[in-house]
Structure formats: C-alpha cells, structure tokens
C-alpha cells in the first residue's frame, strides 16, 4: 500500500520546505519533493498547508492515561495509546526502582512487546543504581550498588532490549558496570547522582553518553562547582534529556541548554500515569503520588514525581516559553533521540529511506493526525486528493 502526502509545510532537523510532498510505500518513505505535482499512490493525504513533522521519540516515560509502565503488558499498551495520540510514535519504556526480580519480570514483558511492536524501542532502567541522596521519587528500599551479578541478571532478563540505563557513577562498582553495559550496547546515562564536574567527565570518558532529566536530581551549576551539567555542555559526545513542562526546568534555563549543547538536547516527558488523565492520587512504582493542577509530587511532600507532560506540549513550550527555533525544537523530539539510540539512519527525518512516522500539526502546533510505520494511528479528520 502506497500513500502520498501533499500540500504540507515540512519541518524537521534539516529545516522547512513549503508545498512539500512525501511518498510512502509500506513502512518507508521512498520519495520526497516540493511543488503542486506529486506522484500517484493508492491513498493520498492532503495536509492542506499544515505542518508535517517526523514522529516524536520519547526516551523516558513511565506511563499515561491512568496506566503505569510498571504494571504489565496491558498497562503499557494503555499508556502508549495516550502518548501516540499526542504524536509520540516510538517509545522507550522506563522503569522506576523496584526489587531486582520485579525489574526482571518487567524487562521480560517489554522484551516480548518489542519483538512484536516496532514502535516499542525497548526499556530504560531508571533504577536501581541511583544515589539514595538524589533518589527523587524512587523507593530508597530498592536502591543498590551495581554489583556484577545484578547487572548480568538485568541484562539477561532484557534479552538485548535494554536501550538505556541511568546510573550514579559514584556508587561502588559503577565504573566497572558502565564498561559492561556499554559493551552490551546499552546507552548509559548519568542521573540521580551527586557526581561533580570531574567525576562526570570521568564517566563520560568511560562511555556515559546522556544526562537523565538534566538539572533534576543532580548538582546544579555553581560558579565554583560547575557540576555535571557544565561537563555535559563541554562534551560533544554527551546528550541531555530535558523535561520542558515549565515545572522541572525554567524555560530560560532550558534555552541555555539548547544554546550550550546545540543538537544534543532530547525533550522527554518523564510522564507518569496521570499524563493525559486527571488530577488525583496515583502510584509510581510503590510510591504514592498526588497530582494537583497537573503537577505530580510524592504524596505529602513537595518532591516532584515525574510529570504529566506529552511531547506535543513540550514542543509548544520549547518554541514559546524557551524561544527555541522551530526546527531545533522538532529536532529535540525526533532526530536527537534517534541519534542517542543509534537509530538516526532510520528515524527522525522526513527523507527517503526513513521510517514513515509522521505527525500533522496545525498552526498552533497541536496534533491533527499521526502515522507510524506508514499506518494511521490518528487519522486526519479530512483527507483529499
């Protein structure tokens, strides 16, 4: 089945093209161009002057729609449906700290899903190898050092589907664990850590390539102690996750990150179950979370516990509050996360040879339709030829 999209304003990391057309055959983009003449296809989609952007990729999310990724296959599918409606076509399934057997069971479930659903890119272990002093919304009872037997057990349960792991490099055995994880093809991220500037640089030299939700659960920037964020700014090998919901990071600080790490910022949601749902009480792993006015905190505290963000909202926040150029904001949701995962040959651009993942956005950057692998997840209200 072939589909041609036409009459679009294309926007991706390579910039904007007006009166854009794109021919899709099956799951792949096979040709693109501009102008009123476009190829014939089995189906046609008149984008009618709206924006056409690549599908969003979320490296770090814990749930949505009232569902938590820690609660098994059906919960994962329920949460993913919510995020896909907001333009996220590919997701890494993130897990909070839990006992090792529970994490292994979750990793096995995600591995099964990834084998059958190409939109599930694999898993992200945000715990258990975190600093107790920077644990955020993770249960301290389930945190531990990355001993070799634990690392091996988790890798085995994931069956090569573990995409990313967050680790505090100051923990006993962390540097050796980083060596093992990097050798296994896992993207290692520094996060929930007290690491300073020098230790962060050592971790980057060891193979760490990402900061987990930059600025949160780590030392900040101080004029005499630049910390891990400045170390990441200085190292072009390292990318920075950013939760741009107006709560986790001030938009002016987000703008600083975009300026200091050009092309290396990945906008994530870090969403918990309340994303796309209502205020109220939820569970994040074993921790009770209260959501008021769309802000999630550990029950009875002011500690932020994930977000209620979707990636389309993060895009709007980037362009309005943080004043990021549109192409750079889209890049942070598409090509940058694809590059972090080593998938930038297939995902993140509207170009021939890339996956047919696309989102139509209106003039206010709100989702109108979503395709993944060439199939409509959210079909347009009106199509024409």
3D structure, described in words:
This protein has helices spanning 73-85, 100-116, 148-158, 174-183, 197-206, 227-234, 251-260, 311-320, 326-333, 335-340; strands at residues 2-12, 15-25, 28-34, 43-46, 51-54, 56-61, 63-64, 67-68, 88-95, 120-125, 162-167, 187-190, 210-211, 239-243, 265-268, 280-284, 287-292, 295-298, 358-361, 367-372, 375-378. Strands 1, 2, 3, 4, 5, 19, 20 and 21 form an 8-stranded mixed beta sheet that branches. It has an 8-stranded parallel beta sheet with strand order 6-9-10-11-12-13-14-15. It has 2 domains: 2-53 and 348-378, Urease, subunit C, domain 1, CATH 2.30.40; 56-340, TIM Barrel (Alpha-Beta Barrel). It is globular. α5 (197-206) packs across α6 (227-234). The chain is an alpha/beta fold. β13 (210-211), α6 and β14 form a beta-alpha-beta unit. The longest helix has 17 residues, at 100-116.
What features would you highlight for this structure?
8-stranded parallel beta sheet, 385 residues, 27% helix, alpha/beta, 2 domains, 8-stranded mixed beta sheet, Urease, subunit C, domain 1, TIM Barrel
């Amino acid at each position: 089945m072939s589909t041609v999209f036409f009459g679009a304003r294309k926007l991706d990391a390579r910039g904007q093209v007006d009166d854009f057309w794109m021919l899709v055959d099956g799951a792949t983009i096979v040709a693109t161009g501009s102008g009123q003449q476009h190829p014939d296809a089995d189906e046609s989609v008149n984008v009618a002057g709206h924006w056409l952007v690549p599908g969003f990729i979320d490296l770090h999310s814990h749930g949505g729609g009232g569902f938590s990724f820690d609660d098994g296959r059906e919960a994962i599918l329920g949460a993913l449906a919510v995020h896909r409606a907001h333009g996220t076509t590919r997701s890494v399934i993130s897990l909070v700290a839990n006992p090792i057997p529970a994490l292994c069971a979750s990793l096995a479930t995600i591995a099964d899903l990834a084998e059958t659903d190409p939109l599930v890119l694999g898993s992200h272990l945000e715990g258990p190898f975190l600093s107790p002093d920077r644990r955020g919304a993770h249960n301290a009872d389930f945190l531990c050092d990355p001993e070799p037997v634990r690392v091996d057990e988790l890798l085995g349960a994931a069956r090569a589907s573990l995409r990313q792991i967050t680790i505090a490099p100051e923990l006993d055995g962390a540097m050796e664990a980083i060596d093992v994880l990097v050798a296994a093809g896992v993207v290692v991220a520094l996060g929930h850590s007290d690491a300073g500037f020098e230790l962060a640089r050592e971790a980057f030299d060891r193979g760490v390539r990402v900061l987990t939700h930059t600025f949160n659960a780590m030392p900040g920037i101080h004029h005499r102690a630049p910390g891990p964020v400045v170390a990441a700014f200085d190292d072009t090998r390292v990318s920075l996750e950013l939760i741009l919901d107006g709560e986790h990071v001030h938009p002016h600080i987000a703008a600083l990150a975009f300026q200091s790490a050009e092309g290396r910022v990945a906008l994530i949601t870090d969403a918990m179950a309340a994303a796309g749902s209502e205020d109220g009480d939820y569970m994040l792993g074993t921790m009770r979370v209260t959501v008021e006015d769309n802000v999630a905190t550990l029950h009875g505290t002011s500690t932020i516990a994930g977000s209620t963000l979707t990636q389309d909202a993060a895009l709007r926040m980037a362009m309005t509050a943080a004043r990021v150029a549109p192409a750079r904001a889209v890049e942070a949701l598409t090509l940058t996360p694809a590059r972090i995962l080593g998938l930038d040959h297939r995902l993140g651009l509207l170009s021939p040879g890339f996956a047919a993942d696309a989102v139509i956005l209106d003039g206010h950057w709100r989702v109108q339709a979503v395709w993944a692998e060439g199939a409509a997840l959210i079909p347009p209200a009106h199509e024409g030829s």
